[in-house]
Design goal:
The complex is a heterodimer of chains A (85) and B (146).
Chain A lengths: L1 E6 L1 H7 L3 E5 L7 H8 L4 H7 L6 E4 L2 E3 L10 E5 L6
Parallel strand pairs in A: 1-5
Antiparallel strand pairs in A: 1-2, 3-4, 3-5
Helix pairs in contact in A: 1-3
Chain B lengths: L3 E4 L5 H9 L5 E8 L8 E6 L3 H16 L4 E7 L1 E4 L3 E9 L2 H18 L2 E7 L2 E4 L4 H8 L4
Parallel strand pairs in B: 1-4
Antiparallel strand pairs in B: 2-6, 3-5, 3-7, 4-6, 7-8
C-alpha cells in the first residue's frame, strides 16, 4: 500500500524531510506497526519515531491511536504532542 | 462570518469582537493569547499541519455548539515567527447569556491546546528549541470530559 508520510516539528528535523512516499508491506497493520517499521529506514527515523511516549499520529488528517488500523490510509502524519495556543 | 482562520498576519481582537457583537446576541466572551516574555525567549515560531489544523478547529467549534447555546464563535491562530508580546490566538464566542459564552470560550482554548496540530519553537539569542507539551494543558483539557 503506497501512502504519503508527513513529519512535523522536531520529528521533521530529525528525519530530514517533511514528506516521503512509502510502500507499506502487508504485515504492517497499525499505526504502532508503521512507526516501528519506519524506524529501520535511518538513524533519523529512529530518533524521531523510536519513543512511543512522545509520538502522536494522524491518519487522513484525523488523530489516530497507536492501535488504529491503516486500511484506507492515504496520508499518515507523525508528530510530537501539540503545543499551540 | 468565517469561523476559523490560520494566518501569518496579525489580527485585531477588537474587530473580531465587534463582528461577534453584530450577531445580535447578549453576551460575548473572548480570549487572546500572546507570546509570553519568558526568561531569555526572543521570539516563537509556530508550525502547523495545513488542512488538518483547520479541520481540527472546525471540529472543536462543532463540539462547542453541541454543548452550549451559541449565536456564533470564531478562532484565529497565527503561524510563523512571532515576537514577544505578539498576539498568537483569538477565541470569541457569542450567546444569549454569559454562561454559555464564557464556558464555550474556555472549552475552546483548553481543547485547542491539546487537539489542534500546532508546534512552538523558541528562539533564545539565536538558539532554537522546540517547546515540550505541558501536563497542565492535558489536565485543563480533561476537565471538559463528561
Amino acid at each position: 500500500m503506497r501512502v504519503d508520510i508527513l513529519y512535523f516539528a522536531w520529528m521533521r528535523e530529525a528525519v530530514g524531510v517533511a514528506q516521503e512516499q512509502v510502500d507499506i508491506p502487508v504485515e504492517v497493520g497499525t499505526v504502532a506497526d508503521l512507526a516501528a517499521w519506519l524506524t529501520t529506514r535511518s538513524a533519523g527515523h529512529l530518533a524521531a519515531l523510536g519513543d512511543s511516549q512522545k509520538l502522536r499520529c494522524a491518519v487522513n488528517q484525523q488523530m489516530a491511536a497507536p492501535d488504529a488500523r491503516l486500511e484506507g490510509a492515504r496520508e499518515i502524519a507523525f508528530f510530537p504532542p501539540v503545543t499551540g495556543g | 462570518m468565517t469561523r476559523v482562520s490560520v494566518q501569518t498576519g496579525p489580527f485585531d481582537p477588537g474587530s473580531e469582537a465587534e463582528a461577534l457583537e453584530r450577531l445580535g446576541a447578549g453576551a460575548i466572551a473572548t480570549f487572546t493569547g500572546l507570546v509570553r516574555n519568558d526568561d531569555g525567549v526572543d521570539a516563537l515560531t509556530l508550525e502547523h499541519y495545513p488542512g488538518m489544523t483547520e479541520a481540527a478547529l472546525e471540529a472543536l467549534l462543532a463540539e462547542a455548539e453541541a454543548r452550549w447555546s451559541l449565536a456564533g464563535a470564531r478562532i484565529v491562530h497565527r503561524v510563523g515567527r512571532l515576537d514577544i508580546g505578539a498576539r498568537i490566538v483569538f477565541v470569541g464566542t457569542a450567546s444569549a447569556h454569559r454562561k454559555d459564552a464564557l464556558e464555550a470560550c474556555a472549552f475552546l482554548i483548553d481543547r485547542l491546546k491539546t487537539d489542534a496540530p500546532f508546534w512552538k519553537k523558541e528562539d533564545r539569542a539565536g538558539a532554537e528549541s522546540w517547546v515540550a507539551a505541558r501536563e497542565t494543558d492535558e489536565d485543563a483539557a480533561a476537565r471538559w470530559e463528561d
